[in-house]
Specification:
heterodimer, A: 462 residues, mainly alpha, MetI-like fold, 2 strands, 68% helix, B: 391 residues, alpha/beta, D-Maltodextrin-Binding Protein, domain 2, six-stranded mixed beta sheet, five-stranded mixed beta sheet, 20% strand, globular
């Protein structure tokens, strides 16, 4: 009997195809028929239930493709040719609507169908494999495993399949499908002037990408400047919180400070108030005619209002400071634990050697902290790039300026994206920007993470 | 036993089929939070007036300003009958969101003021039912501070306010109000043949208006903010303010005997006195093209905006009517705010040709002026603003 040799790991991508070809070469009539009629080989070898299940899946798949997917997949190249139609009905005295193509549904269901086709290919391969296996069993004169026995393996050696099927399906349906759908929207002209169901939208290739980079000066100028501010903001928001939180934790942690627990509790209590409530209150307090300005004026500290949220520079400083205020308790909590973990003998020997407190901080505390918290810093940096709450609830991205496209001076990419989708229905542009935000976040995280001590010198961690 | 069970099953099926025969018309209505009680009363009256059909009407809180946004999020889930501000008309028509009014339309055209009908139409086709004609702004002022002569010019008002140590309120960092200067100076917002926004606020007249805005915002008596600033401060720190009828009750209460309202003043534009214009906004009722019951939805929209219910709106919520007969009503005529609005409406332009892209750049210009950021000259700022509006 010719032995079936599985391909090496290095050529895994072709292994699947080669395996199928091999099976076709060595399969008998029943196995070969299973290429067209799924489950045929299984039924032939008396694995009735299994064979029937494969066959039913094939029937269901064909029915789905012809009955449902066909009408969408056939229009994927144009995303529809005729929008909702209106015809005058003399009897009803109204314009009766006949539903036409809906570009959004065509795109959505096409993506869904393509994913299903891919899934079906895997099922088809499994069908061929099990038919071939049955053929080999027959050749060797072994008893064919019963359906019951095969089901049982799902609880033992194939338990991982039982456990992971539902989560994987969920991830495909609720994460992968929407992501593919939204990425594809970046290549269309889905905006306020192309709104389904009244209007169709279609593919425009890389137009949105070139718009963002150079071909539309207003949009590319806005994108560049908002990107710049987003990075400045992310750096400041991340590191101010990190250092001030750490300093706070060190102060509370210092020997000789009494009521440590009380201080910590006081700061942590602020977490109990939902962040958006604090932020909206802050925005009211800092308003041009808000309580803070009124008080300062009444006490005679200032002559005219301080434009906390309406002047460009003030607004940018204000959002960073308010962010420190709402963010410090979290860093304090995280760093407190790590600080208590630093071996005290390190400090003792350092002080015997005559090191100053500053020297101790930079030579012992900070390296230790950075070693442990780099992954945390990366997540909080990425979180700050997408820090919607603080910006939108405080300034709504304002103050607006005339040389930005539908955006203001404190807008981050993510708040601009929000305005473009919710207020302007410019989904394609927003999707393009979303892709950029992802690329920036992903590459920054990967590079910094792989360079960090936490990864490189993992074994040194005590 | 089995027989009994099957008999019950058959009976149950028959019953459910029977109830499906007497068709229930399910409709959803969107209106603002403040209108909910009133809308429910109107719908109850509608049901009583149409006993031949079973109506199941539900309500959703979506204000006129948010209607378009909420509609476009999911047209099929949107209300069958919804109120919206007339500047959303083109965006809604773009999405084929509105049924053309083809039932009873002649009567509707006849019953409402022409400007309201114009605001609800595209070309010769009527696409919505006018609810109100009061979505505009004018001047509230304190009679004890500003004389009838002073109130005629912006300079006079500012002088009177300065002398009394008080402020004049206007939300210049808002596209809706700031347009008053540009349009007053002769600027135009329109649409080209492709339906794209056109705007000439950066021409010579526009720059003159921009300079006037600069002088106004730089004046010591100038005050900006949102509505709460005006209603909070009028009578004490504020002596005059530009706003609309929705603040009438609050301002009347604060000013008491000194309560007065009139058209907007003239402003000094390139050395001449020019009347401030305004946007005339209308609230409209539209019928969703996705509705299952277009005729019934149209009947309901018609009902909610008819003469009787426009009068009810005025009585319950002091909302100014678009119905000609209701406008002639003695009570409506006696309303100080509404008569000021009527006076201003001579200088008002329709907000219909203003698309969504207008607001942010206009607000940006106002914000820059309020912040007294003069790093760019007016011409540059206006060029940028117009580029943003027409992009």
């Amino acid at each position: 009997m010719p032995k079936f040799i599985p391909a090496g790991r290095d050529r895994q991508s072709f292994a699947g195809i080669r395996e199928i070809v091999n099976i076709f070469k060595q399969g008998d009539f029943a196995t070969r028929s299973s290429f067209l009629i799924m489950g045929f080989g299984c039924i032939k070898r008396k694995q009735y239930i299994k064979g029937l299940l494969y066959f039913l899946m094939q029937v269901a798949f064909i029915a789905y493709m012809l009955g449902f997917a066909n009408q969408y997949l056939s229009k994927i190249s144009t995303l529809g040719t005729e929008a909702m139609r209106r015809e005058w009905s003399e009897a009803r005295q109204i314009y009766v609507r006949t539903p036409g193509d809906n570009s959004m549904l065509i795109l959505l269901f096409s993506v869904m169908s393509i994913l299903l086709i891919i899934a079906f290919v895997f099922i088809w391969r499994a069908n061929i494999r099990s038919c071939y296996k049955a053929q080999q069993y027959e050749k060797l004169g072994k008893l064919q495993p019963t359906f019951k026995a095969e089901i049982k393996t799902l609880l033992n050696e194939r338990f991982h399949i039982t456990m992971l099927t539902v989560p994987s399906l969920m991830i495909v349906a609720f994460t992968i499908l929407p992501i593919i759908f939204m990425i594809l929207i970046a290549f269309t002209n889905f905006d306020a002037n192309h709104q389904p169901p009244g209007k169709l939208f279609t593919w425009v290739g890389f137009k949105n990408f070139t718009d963002v980079f150079w071909s539309d000066p207003l949009i590319s100028n806005t994108f560049g400047k908002i990107l710049g501010w987003t990075l400045i903001w992310a750096v400041f928001a991340t590191f101010t919180n990190y250092f001030f939180g750490m300093i706070l934790a060190i102060m509370i942690n210092k020997k000789g400070v009494r009521l440590k627990k009380m201080w910590r509790t006081i700061f942590v209590i602020t977490i109990a108030v939902p962040q958006f409530v604090s932020l909206m209150l802050m925005s009211q307090i800092l308003h041009d005619q808000g309580p803070l300005n009124m008080l300062l004026q009444k006490w005679g500290f200032i002559e005219s209002n301080i434009p906390f949220l309406t002047d460009i520079t003030y607004a940018r400083i204000t959002v960073i400071i308010v962010n420190i205020w709402v963010g410090i308790p979290y860093t304090m909590l995280i760093t407190s634990g790590i600080l208590m973990n630093i071996p005290a003998d390190l400090y003792e020997s350092a002080s015997i050697d005559g090191a100053s407190p500053a020297r101790m901080f930079f030579s012992i505390t900070l390296p230790y902290m950075l070693f442990v918290t780099t992954p945390y810093l990366i997540t909080s940096f990425v979180g700050n790039i997408n820090n919607f709450n603080v910006i939108y609830l405080l300034t709504k991205g304002g103050p607006l300026v005339t040389d930005y496209y539908q955006a203001g001076k404190t807008d981050l990419l993510v708040t601009w994206l929000y305005k473009l989708t919710v207020d302007k229905q410019n989904y394609s542009l927003a999707s393009t920007i979303g892709i950029f935000v992802f690329v920036i976040c992903a590459s920054l995280s990967l590079v910094v993470y792989n360079m960090s001590g936490s990864v490189k010198r993992e074994e040194e961690f005590q | 036993m089995k027989k009994l069970l099957s008999l019950m099953l058959v009976l149950g099926m028959l019953l459910s089929a029977g109830s499906a025969l007497a068709e229930t018309v399910t409709l959803k209505v969107w209106g603002s939070q403040d209108d909910q009680v009133m809308l429910q009363e109107m719908v109850e009256a509608f049901k009583a007036a149409n006993p031949d059909k079973e109506y199941d009407v539900s309500f959703g809180v979506v204000g006129e300003g948010d209607a378009k946004t909420k509609y476009l999020e999911d047209p099929e889930e949107a209300a069958d009958v919804f109120a919206f501000a007339n500047d959303q008309l083109y965006d809604l028509l773009n999405a084929d969101a509105l049924y053309e009014v083809t039932i009873n339309n002649d009567a509707i055209v006849e019953a409402n003021v022409p400007s309201a009908i114009e605001a609800a139409s595209s070309g010769d086709h009527l696409y919505a039912y006018p609810i109100t004609a009061d979505n505009g702004y004018f001047l509230y002022y304190d009679k004890s501070v500003i004389s009838e002569e002073q109130v005629k010019t912006l300079d006079g008002i500012l002088e009177a306010c300065s002398d009394a140590g008080k402020k004049m309120f206007m939300d210049v960092s808002n596209g809706w109000y700031i347009a008053s200067f540009f349009i007053g100076a002769g600027g135009e917002l329109g649409l080209d043949e492709n339906g794209k926004q056109t705007c000439d606020f950066n021409n010579e007249a526009g720059v003159a208006a921009g300079e006037a805005i600069k002088a106004f915002t730089a004046h010591e008596a100038f005050l900006t903010g949102d509505d709460s600033i005006l209603t909070g401060g009028i009578g004490t720190t504020i002596a005059a303010g530009v706003s609309g009828t929705w603040n009438a009750e609050a301002i009347k209460e604060k000013l008491g005997e000194n309560y007065a309202a009139t058209k907007l003043p003239t402003f000094t534009c390139a050395g001449e006195q020019v009347q401030m214009a305004s946007f005339a906004g209308f609230k409209l009722m539209g019928v969703n093209t996705m509705t299952e019951y277009p005729e019934e939805a149209m009947a309901l929209a018609d009902w909610l905006t008819n003469e009787e219910n426009q009068l009810k709106r005025f009585k319950m919520r002091s909302i100014g009517p678009s119905n000609i007969k209701v406008m002639e009503n003695e009570e409506v005529k006696a309303d100080i705010a509404l008569s000021a609005l009527a006076e201003q409406s001579k200088f008002a332009v329709s907000q219909k040709d203003v698309l969504g892209n207008y607001w942010a750049p206009a607000e940006a210009f106002g914000t820059t002026m309020e912040a007294k950021d003069y790093s760019k000259d007016i011409q540059t700022l206006l060029d940028e603003m117009v580029a943003g509006i027409t992009n």
